[in-house]
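Worked example

This section walks through a single chain of length 281. The input is the sequence exactly as stored; nothing has been trimmed or padded.
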Amino acid sequence: MNNKNFIGLLLSCGLFLVGFAIHGNISLYFNLSGLLIVIGGTLSAALFSFKVDQLRNVHKVLVAAYRRPITKETDIINILIDLSIRSRMEGILTLQNQENGTTVLFLRRALACLVDGYKIDQIRDILNTEMYFFRLRREDSERVIRAIADYFPAFGIIGSVVGLITMLGGLGDTSVILKSIPIALTSTLYGLIFSNFFFLPFAATVKERTNQELLLQKIIMEGVIAINSELNPVILKTKLESFLTPSERETKVLSYAKLKERFNIEREMQKEESKEQEVVS
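Given that input, the structure is written out below as tokens.
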């Protein structure tokens, strides 16, 4: 979550809470019985529906989605262009030294296929399979989160029914009615808040994050295949930028002077010339 999202979230949450407190005491909206019914019931249904390992994996996906920044598409394109230039100048085998230096696991796997000498069809098949099962795993996590989001309103209604039954059982006792009404009303409120304020946005975040990562993986796959085909870096840049919106196409092709500075070409040429002079002498 970037700073703009975080600031917007704080402001919107403030407005949300002000709406509760503006016409009364906010403590009136807290009821322990209703909260226990909604959370306990939803947790029980989730444990009945899914394995603990699956729920733990969903937790890991959510933590990564909110805490781990995703690599920008432009950064991936720049990395691929640099790798393309390096492979043309120094050979594909030199990319082996770059495998541990990349920050994207999918990119490391793609480079490993490239260095190992796989054919283009084999690289495409391996990476497409990786992308397919990555998408399936993320869709499974999203499905679990949406299922839990559906459980919350249902148990909110159950809490309301419990409160109504208690109220009907104490029709002759005003104190019983006053204690049961908050259970009936707050349970539905808790169910709706947990579902719509937390878990449905969680599922939307996972889906959005998955789409972003799949786009990165598609860019990496096309870039690695182009490197294997020895595609010109200028053409590669134009091809990869087709994945971006027009406003994001700000990357520039490196100048020859910049290339010499980055890859120490001039030093290498001087070393080779000195070696040739030694051999001649």
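What to look for: The chain has ten helices and no strands.
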